[in-house]
Structures are given as C-alpha cells and as structure tokens.
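Minutes, structural biology subgroup

Action item carried over from last meeting: produce the structure token record for PRiA4b ORF-3-like protein (Thermoanaerobacter uzonensis DSM 18761). EB confirmed the sequence was re-checked against the source entry. Recorded below for completeness.
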Amino acid sequence: MLIQCTKKLLDVLERKPIPYEEENLLFCWHANFITLNRKKTVVLVNDKNRYVVVLYGLKTNDFKRLDEIILNAIRLTLLDECIDEDIVDEYLRQSGEIVYGKTKNSSYVGKLNTACNIVPYYEELLLGDTIYQTFVSKIASRYLVGKQEGEGYISPSEEMFKDLGIFAKRPIFKCKAVELKVTLKMENHNIWRRIVVPLNTTFTQFHKVLQAAFGWLDYHLYEFFIYGDEMQDISFINHPSYNKARYKPVVNLVGDEEAFDYPNDDDIEMRLEKGIKLSEYIPQCKRLLYVYDFGDNWRHYIEVERVIEDYDKNYAICVDGEGNAPPEDVGGEYGYDKFLEIISDKNNPEYESTLAWGEYQGYKDFNIREVNKNIKFVYDSFLL
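Output recorded by EB:
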C-alpha cells in the first residue's frame, strides 16, 4: 500500500520518502497532517475514488506505529460501512506492506486539500476516546466533490463501493441487523412501522430514521430510554420512561447537552447519545422508548423482533407499517383527533386552512416507498 505524504506529514514521521509506483490506484492513498481542536490529525484520501479516512488525537508514539494504525483505520472504517469482513481482509492483504512516498502531483494534492477542508466541518462529531474516527470518515466520504474533468460531482463513498464490488466480483455488503417494530402510542389510532436497522447505526442516525419513518420534521428535542428486565415500582408512573409493562430503563440517551442541566433524582444513567451505536445495547436489551417533542409527547415503543446475521445492505429499510403519523405541533393526541375531525368535513369553515396547515407540517398518507426513499437519504447524506 502506497501512502503519499505531504512534506508536513513526512516531517512529523521523520521519514525519507521511498520512490515507488503502484499501478492499482485502489491501493494508493494521499495523506496530510493537520491540527483539529489542538489535536494531531491525519487525513487519508484514496487515489482511486477519493474516499476519506480520519485519524484524530494522535500522540507522538502513535507516529512510530503509523503503519499499523493506518491499516486498522481503513479496516474499521470499511467494516463500519457494513462491507463484508472477508472482502475487507482480502483488500488489505492484496494492498501489501505500507510504503511512504511523496505526494504525486498538484491534482492529487488538490483532492487531498479538499478533504482536509471538509473534515473540520464535523469537528464536533470527533470522538475524544479513540484515534479511529469511522463516523466522521463516513460523513466526509459522502460529501459530494467535483470530478477532475469539471463535469458534475461524485460521492466518494459510492465510488469506493463500486470499486470494492469490482475488486471482490460479488456483493460487498454484509452486517448484523435487527428487525424492530415501532409503535406510536395512541389510544384511538393504530400507527406503527416495522424497520430493519444495521446494528452499527448510531442513535443519532436512528433518530433520523425514525423521523423519516413517521414523517416528522425534526423540529423538536428527543430522547431514548432503553429497558432491561428489571421492573419499575409504582413511583415511576409519572416518570417519562414509564410504560404499561413496567420495565425499568437501564439508560436514558439524550440528544442535547442541555438535558444534563435539569435535576435527575432517579438512578437512571443519562448519556449523550453522540457516537453511541445500537449494538452497544441491542439485541441484549429488547425494548426501547423513543420520545419526540416533549410538548406533544409522542412516545414510540420499540420492540426487537429478530436478529439478522447477514443483512445485505448498509442502511435501514421499512418493511411494513400502518397509519398516518400526526402532523408536527398538532397538540398531542387530542389535537390530532380535532385535526382529523376538521379535514374529514369539507363543509367545516376551517377545512381548507387546516388541510393546508397539515400539509405544511408534513402530514401525508403513509407510503412505504417514499418512507424508504427518505430513510436512504439519511444514510447517503448522513443527515444530522
């Protein structure tokens, strides 16, 4: 594997570049050294497809074993893309030992600089407890970049997937996933979705998947409660985590740091869900609660129905569902009932204005094809 380094990186490595030509650009990467949040960072860009891999928080001793770190970073990032582990291992085997050289020419340096300008946009998503920034690597690789000829744009991630497909000569995706039934808790309505989700999905992404599945517009705060097998006592009846089955949550995952400013008198651990993957809690925990919009208080009960060992996609899909989700800011279930009453009567003087308002707030009939299109967009763009 050829790593073509900028002078700045070579100086940090204290290495002299070795003249070397690699015919297969898929095994060639350009690399640069930058500083983010006052931490040493290395950005790698694949010469064939411009896929990005980010190493963050490197220490002086880490540069002495950079060969090992680079190979592990590429491996972990591709596995996090749900690439079949056998394909990833074969790619690294055929790449061979790492050789360090100089940057090739101004064209490749320009592509490298583009990636180095993209990564800082996502500084707040960099994790401080690991060198391997697979999530930011995946996001940066989905940033559309211009073709060299100046005709249109490409997605480096999609180009990498195509190249690995040609390399492997077979389908490349294989990962562990779960099938979940998500039910919006309402007394007078039956609204649910059945979703298959890769277990390496973060809870941030999962929130976006649920938004797409129910047609919400992500206007409001949210949180997750993850239940164990222990039962709640009756004192929990007014707690946000309370459920009729009376399971007690093992953790409360919140989407906003301001949640920690409010007093927490119970013994439920609260964590910011940044970077946490479903696999940390699922499938060992089989019940979850997703609360969206603390005013209207939309409570989605989530149940793990089955585990899929060899899921052949790297994104979630909705496989079934029923019922139209309420529009945003409708005023809870009572407001939704009133909304439905008005739009079902064309003679009601508020009919036209209420119908128009509902459409503006995202209200529409459940359409599984449109839902899946929106879910795929969440993964393609890493919409956050």
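Discussion: The chain has ten helices and 15 strands.
Next step: EB to file the record with the rest of the batch.
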